[in-house]
Amino acid sequence: MELPERLSARFEGSFAYKTVKDRLPTILVSVIDTLHKEKEKLAEKYPVQGTTQLKEVVSRLSKLRYEMMTNKPLNYLDDELPDASIWNDYLCQLSKSGDTPSWFRSHWLYVECLMYRQIVSSLKQSQILADFDPFFESKKKSYLTSLEAIHTVIGYLTSKTSSPPTDVQDRKMLLREFLELSLWGNRCDLSISAGRDNSQTANPLKQVGQLDELILADDFNNLWDYLRSLRAKTKTGAKVRIDIILDNAGFELLSDLCLAEILLTLGCATEIVFHMKAYPWFVSDTTEEDVQFCVSQLLQSELLAEKTQGSCWANRINEGVFVFKKDLFWTLPHDFAAMRSVRPKLYSSLARSNLLIFKGDLNYRKLVGDRQWPRQATSFCESLLQFNPAPLLSLRTLKCDVCVGLSAATVAKLDKENKDWMTNGQYAVIQYTQTVLPLELPDHTVTGVKGSVVINPLATAVID
Description:
By secondary structure, the chain is of the alpha/beta class. 47% of the residues lie in helices and 9% in strands.
């Protein structure tokens, strides 16, 4: 099968072009400004090295911004992090294709990921700033400005988990509610707003149901039928694992934790595995520090419901019911169809899951290869290019111009009414496939990335 072209900034006027031209340089400026705000703290704590190392990092980031805006050739990574060789091999392979890889000529998914990896590289080469997350304060602010919504959701969650429904339709409706909370929580994406506040201020419970007409593809009924079969398994004492590949921190992370709690309450799972980013990524993607912050905020809350729920989740983490992992594959430039060859152990681990839930836009782009698929002629399963380790669900609000599995009538209607419908974050998809391919890993695989690291976000030590 001949694959469609990947999205790229070389298509002038496209969303990718606008991103590389405007949004990514703006994010770099924001990172530089954040570092400048740390100047006094660093000078006080490290009077000799602090200012010097900060200037070196800022210089590298300023150079990166200039090279991006002037479409310079892409550079190899010069750090010693364990994934550097894979990144450099990726660029080497691109260089053999003919065109010199550059910011506006190469495919968008790669160059956008590369910018964040270059930010990480610049920080890691500074002894003082190696573990600094330049996005943490904006993620923290986004959480704190969503407190009213958080109060509402946690209060509702505790009322439902303390007295779970027994009727099948009531259980289905409850799952639907929290699935939509998690879905629409994906609107809180700081990379799309270039770091500007994008918190959850509306009452999220009022949004549930009211926004159904904005869900362009909805496979919930098929998903529910499968989850009922998982519930039947747990009733026999079998272990059932569901994996959630996280997207944004803040309110979205909290809504994902709520969804996980409902899946446990309804007996659809006995273990939830959350996959985080190993590096600060795409401004608001979830890291270990973000999970720590979220749970600690609940534990410190003056509201009983939040304190109780925070204690519940802390216990789930310590007991291994909630498991948090980070793997460097999630911050590589590859789409997920390459996981078998690039990261076979991760693919094998996902294949042991009963359900994979991929959150958000970046995960969706990597699922479908960030290609210009015909929107109404391509099924969701087909676009995965045989990435089918386990039954798979995507919960995503649309923030870039790639989407599959839509009806021709839907596409025609939206193209006529709203030219920005694919990028404005107002529409969403719930797409599910139960197709699972036999696990046949390749004989020759890329080396260099260590295994997934299991993290207890409430402790400082790796527990496995």
